[in-house]
Write a structure and sequence with these properties.
By secondary structure, the chain is α/β, with parallel strands linked by helices. The chain has 2 domains: about 110 residues, Urease, subunit C, domain 1, CATH 2.30.40; about 300 residues, Metal-dependent hydrolases (TIM Barrel). The chain contains 12 helices and 18 strands. The strands form 4 sheets. Strands 1, 2, 3, 4, 5, 16, 17 and 18 form an 8-stranded mixed sheet that branches. A hairpin with a 4-residue loop joins strand 1 and strand 2. Helix 8 runs parallel beside helix 9 and helix 9 packs across helix 10. The structure holds zinc ion (ZN). Zinc ion binds next to loops.
């Protein structure tokens, strides 16, 4: 036995006095060898009481020969960290970087993905990310879309005037090559590809929107439908990206976009169809079929929810239709075991997305925990061993006051945060 009495005492003090500087002090020390006793650990199905060992920042199978810190977890509940699989909030503008980072860590979110950032702004925050004592994030940089499609119109006509206090006077087109790349044909893809890679994206973001309308006369709707890439270009982009070792995420809106993107070989859909509606006549466009859900499951693509976007629907009388479509789509994806990840798109916290999903009554608390802790982390960093509390995985977890399966409110009662072998600082 390598236990020393003082070491027995120290962790207990750390755990109970979570609002002291004890965590921060401990972080400054070298990565220790830990034994965590008396914790109840989530295994994907239930909570299991066991002793867990951590060495060099990873969970290990066997008890290390020397344990230098023993932590008594006092029957608390241990789960993998939460994730935000789709946001534009972590961008490097607005709030100071540390404030942004802390807002996620406070909610227990360790992993974040921004699928369309502007490198010009992201460089303000990037140096403070992806370290054991910080937030980990992946960025796509600008997305690939058609000229005058989404998000070009959004950035040039709505966002651009608002950033002029930072950038000075800009002309329309300022965001070209920053927030988006226009790809209208194969030649443009060839011409721009090296420029896209030069900014070192973590993955490639593409846009398919109402792709069933490409090449057809514009619709009779009084609303101008948004547009994205010509879908025939998507397989070419996927081939180039995969060749460069990069995954491809696609913004999709309709069920047609959904199946077209999957058939093109993309790795992730940044939305689930049915996140928005402006005209009841279009609601059937967003309804997935059994075959769509089966295809998504077979191809193992990640599908990020972004369901809270329904709160942005202007015509509130359409909300029941939107919620009904979302629920049907979720049930289908669940039925076939598609890989669903949690992402809000529009909030500063995925907690709001979780709330929107829970309102649809599709998942049990256990199922939702798996989506938020396991799938979502893996969708952000698919090459890392994260999201499970198992030997070989990065030793990162949250200690909760109570059982989150029995009472979901316990997901917000985070006593402490442990990341890659270190206790993180406490948050009030
Ligand atoms: Zn988005």
């Amino acid at each position: 036995m390598n236990r020393k009495f003082t070491m027995l005492l120290l962790p207990v003090i750390i755990l109970l006095a979570s609002h002291t500087n004890a965590f921060a002090q401990q972080f400054a020390e070298k990565n220790k060898v830990y034994a965590f006793e008396n914790g109840q650990w989530f295994n994907g199905e239930k909570f299991v009481r066991k002793t867990v060992y951590v060495k060099d920042g990873y969970f290990v199978n066997t008890k290390p020969a020397v344990i230098d810190t023993l932590v008594n977890l006092q029957n608390k509940f241990i789960i993998p960290p939460f994730s935000e699989s789709h946001t534009h909030h972590l961008e490097g503008v607005g709030a100071p970087p540390q404030e942004l980072i802390d807002s996620y860590l406070k909610d227990g979110v360790f992993y974040v993905k921004n699928p369309n950032n502007v490198r010009f702004f992201t460089k303000n925050i990037i140096d403070q990310l992806n370290q054991p004592n910080s937030l980990d994030a992946s960025f796509a940089n600008g997305g690939l879309t058609i000229s005058e499609g989404h998000p070009m119109v959004l950035f040039e006509d709505q966002v651009r005037p608002s950033i002029e206090p930072m950038t000075g006077k800009t002309e329309r087109g300022w965001f070209n090559g920053k927030a988006y790349y226009t790809i209208n044909n194969e030649k443009e893809l060839e011409d721009k590809w090296q420029t896209i890679l030069a900014d070192k994206p973590d993955f490639i973001k593409t846009y398919l929107i109402n792709s069933e309308d490409i090449g057809k006369p514009s619709s009779s709707s009084k609303y101008k439908l948004r547009a994205g890439l010509d879908p025939s270009l998507l397989p070419l982009i996927v081939a180039k990206a995969h060749n460069a070792g990069l995954r491809v995420a696609t913004h999709v809106e309709t069920a047609y976009d959904f199946r077209t993107a999957i058939m093109a070989g993309v790795d992730e859909l940044a939305h689930m169809p049915g996140f928005y509606l402006f005209d009841a006549a279009y609601s059937s466009r967003y309804q997935l079929t059994e075959d769509d859900a089966k295809l998504a499951a077979v191809k193992k693509v990640f599908i990020t929810t972004t369901l809270m976007s329904r709160t942005l629907v202007e015509d509130k009388s359409l909300l029941p239709i939107v919620a009904d479509t979302q629920k049907k789509n979720l049930l289908l994806l669940k039925k076939y075991g598609a890989r669903i990840a949690i992402g809000s798109d529009h909030s500063d916290s995925p907690v709001d997305e979780i709330k929107a999903i829970r309102e649809l009554n599709v998942f049990t608390n256990t199922e939702l925990l798996k989506l938020w802790c396991e799938n979502s982390a893996q969708s952000i960093f698919p090459k890392r061993k994260i999201g499970l509390l198992e030997p070989g995985y990065e030793a990162s977890f949250l200690v909760l006051e109570g059982d989150p399966v029995a009472d979901w409110n316990n997901t917000a009662k985070i006593i402490s945060r442990f990341k890659q072998g270190y206790f993180m600082k406490a948050f009030r």
